[in-house]
Amino acid sequence: MRFIYLLLLGLYSSVLAAESHLIAQGDQAYAQGDYVAAAKNWRQALEADPLLDTTKKVDVLQRLAAAYQDLAMHVESMNALAEALDLVDVDTDKPSSEQRAQQARVLSQLSDTWLIFGEIAKAISIGKQAVTAAELSQNPRLLASAYNNLANAEAVHGEYEAAAKAFAQSKAAAKTAGDDLMWLKASLNQADVIFTDQDPEKLPSLLSEIETPLNNAPVSAERAVLHLSFANLAERGMRYFRLIDDKANSQALLSKAQQQYQTVLQLEGINARQRSLAYGQLAKLYEDINDPNNAAKLNQRALFFAHQGDYEDILYRWQWQQARLLKAQGQQEAAIAAYRSTIATLKPIQQRMEIGYRSPPASFDQRIRPVYYQLAGLLIQKAERSTDKTQNQALLAQAMDVIEAVKVVELKNYFRDECVLQYQGRQQDLALVAEKTAIIYPMPLENRLVTLVSIDGEIYPFSTEVESAVFNDTVWDFRILLQTRPHNGFLKQAWKIYDWMFKPIEGLLAQHHIETLVVVPDGKLRMIPFSTLHDRKGFLIERFAFAMTPGLSLVDPQTMDWSNNEILLAGLSAAVQDYPPLPNVSNELEAIQKITGKGDAILNQSYSIASFKEKMQQKSYAVIHLATHGEFSADPDKTYLLTHDEKMKMDKLSSIIGLGKFREQPVELLTLSACRTAVGDDKSALGLAGVAVKAGARSAVATLWFVDDEATSITMKDFYRQMVENKGLSKAKALQNAQNKLLQNPRYWHPSYWGPFLLIGNWL
């Protein structure tokens, strides 16, 4: 027995030695910036000893979470921290200081991870718990870190005063602990908050206070990160003072930024990632001050170190920078090739890049969309200079494909899944199915609006000089004024947008006798119905039927046969969940039943998620009409349709519609007759535009804003009547006729009544 005991003891000692060796190897790899190797070693350490001491296991899980975070594997990071938190034992009557300290460390890291996911409320709540645990642990170093992470979350939430106070508390705790690097980190973060919200003029003096202690800090990878943060803040300050024409401060901050980047490059022992960031950011600085030669040289070094470490998330940035520099130098072919390389690097990582930045959710518009649009702009320029029609058409088709690709990515990112992929590749050749139809691709570029028009398979480019800021402001104003009754203050903007977008193409549309316009809008243009634009003679709805789609590759154009189609009607006429009543809903559903001669209806208390699901399991409905309040938000988790007692989110709607027989036969038409999007929020409009795709329907009819209940009922009844009584009439034409009928009624002439109705997806 003693022999077996000693043998087991020896084996366990070997396991412990192997586990300790793996942890040490992970630490070494992490210090060198090799996060993949670090994560691999720490995972193996956890697997090597299933009976690993709990305290040590929590410690390794935290290290693993940090490595995952650096690799932008944020879901894996969250899972590791969740496992660590489950292991932290503070349920005893008197938890020790070390137990409290361990809890504080995990909570603080978890708070930061929730912030990465954009869950700001959770980040703040958990951050406060981390501060409490750190206070109870009586560990000032931990308290400094916990206050810093809490303040970061408060700053992102716009609670700048609370953030500045928490950063000050972090600095005080760091000073007590003698943690100079933590003091510097909190000081830089506090300076950022003061610059952003309180007093930007103070930035030069704040940075001067930080500069000397930072330059005197011990050399480490963490110090290198602080130098990069300092330089980035100095750059932002430089741009601010340049805008207000303060040349002295602008030049001083430019010098500080350059010095900080150079300091990083002179530090010993920094890893390839930090070298790449320093070279790349310094190159960006030279790009901004119009020194392309130095910028190009520095950018080549940045590319080298990004390749060396296989850092795709920064490699694409320097490839993009190279493309811009080549474009600025007039090297069009090389620039196009560089943009294509950028997109090739970006494709595998672009969805996860929407997570991972502790900032408001504008990242897609800043870091992904411009890459595609700049490439499309170059391809269009090349096409416009080509005298070879075949080459011209090929280049314009490539430009449309590039824009189409980014639209699909954007929709995937909005819904946070791969839902749109199942609809790609099903579309027919639109040139064969779109008689008297034009496909319109408006592309707001930096200094001009480019509109691509596809008719009978041929693409025509049009360009109008207008600054993107001016264009977007006009679209924004137009949307707000459209909803303001009863005056016609919207006309000025309606004329302007018409002149920019449609006046250049009106001759082409007339030449081809176009009757239907399928628009693939982008950005702010998603917030407006094009039917409400005005040519000084009348609204465009009087001349054209309209449909819109978030992407042409997501459309499956097919005509609809009403003779053999089942209809499900559901709605709320009563006031529920703090929403006002919709008294005309009962009449609307009854009228549609009479018009179509069919339809199963669930109304008010009978309309629940459970009853909707039960109905969908019973029949293969081709048409689903939901007359209920709906909210479309920039956050898909806050996008829903109202049932009597619950809110049905898009994931739930999609899963219910996808039940049973619908797996093979998609819904032909989904109608949402009382939904709305947030004013000025193009991401919420993207959610509305993607509702047909998400729900698995060929087409949808929905409203951009909440419409008068009676006007909605009139429009919906006439829309169905048009389709049933006019065999072969397209959905786009049916909706156009219904809108025009409402427009002719003096009571409803204003576009706020008839304008918000959109046909999304299949227009046939």
How would you characterize this protein structure?
This protein is an alpha/beta fold and 764 residues long. Among the domains are: 374-553, no CATH class; 559-728, Flavodoxin domain (Rossmann fold, 3-Layer(aba) Sandwich), CATH 3.40.50. The strands form 2 sheets. Strands 6, 7, 8, 9, 10, 11, 12 and 13 form an 8-stranded mixed β-sheet that branches. A 5-stranded mixed β-sheet has the order 3-2-1-4-5. The relative contact order is 0.05. Mean pLDDT is 88; it is low at 1-12, 356-361 and 423-428.
Helical percentage: 55-70%
Number of helices: 32
Radius of gyration: 30 Å
Mean pLDDT: 88
**First-residue to last-residue Cα separation:** 83 Å
Largest sheet: 8 strands, mixed
The number of distinct β-strands equals 13
Fraction in beta strands: 5-15%
Helix-and-strand structural type: alpha/beta
- Choose one word for the global shape: globular
List unreliable stretches of 5+ residues. 1-12, 356-361, 423-428
Report a brief summary of the structure.
The protein is built from 32 helices and 13 strands. Strand 2 and strand 3 (458-465) form a beta hairpin.
Which terms summarize this structure?
764 residues; Rossmann fold; five-stranded mixed beta sheet; 13 strands; 60% helix
List the helices and strands and how they pair.
Elements: H1 2-31, H2 35-48, H3 54-70, H4 74-87, H5 97-116, H6 120-137, H7 140-156, H8 160-177, H9 180-198, H10 203-215, H11 221-243, H12 247-266, H13 272-288, H14 292-309, H15 312-328, H16 332-346, H17 350-353, H18 363-367, H19 369-385, H20 389-415, H21 430-433, E1 437-444, E2 448-455, E3 458-465, H22 468-482, H23 491-501, H24 506-511, E4 516-519, E5 545-548, E6 566-571, H25 585-596, E7 600-603, H26 609-618, E8 621-632, E9 640-642, E10 647-649, H27 650-657, E11 669-677, H28 682-689, H29 691-695, E12 699-703, H30 709-725, H31 731-744, H32 751-754, E13 757-761
Parallel strand pairs: 1-4, 4-5, 6-7, 6-8, 8-11, 11-12
Antiparallel strand pairs: 1-2, 2-3, 8-9, 9-10, 12-13
Helix pairs in contact: 1-2, 2-3, 3-4, 3-5, 4-5, 5-6, 5-7, 6-7, 7-8, 7-9, 8-9, 9-10, 9-11, 10-11, 11-12, 11-13, 12-13, 13-14, 13-15, 14-15, 15-16, 16-19, 19-20, 22-23, 25-30, 30-31
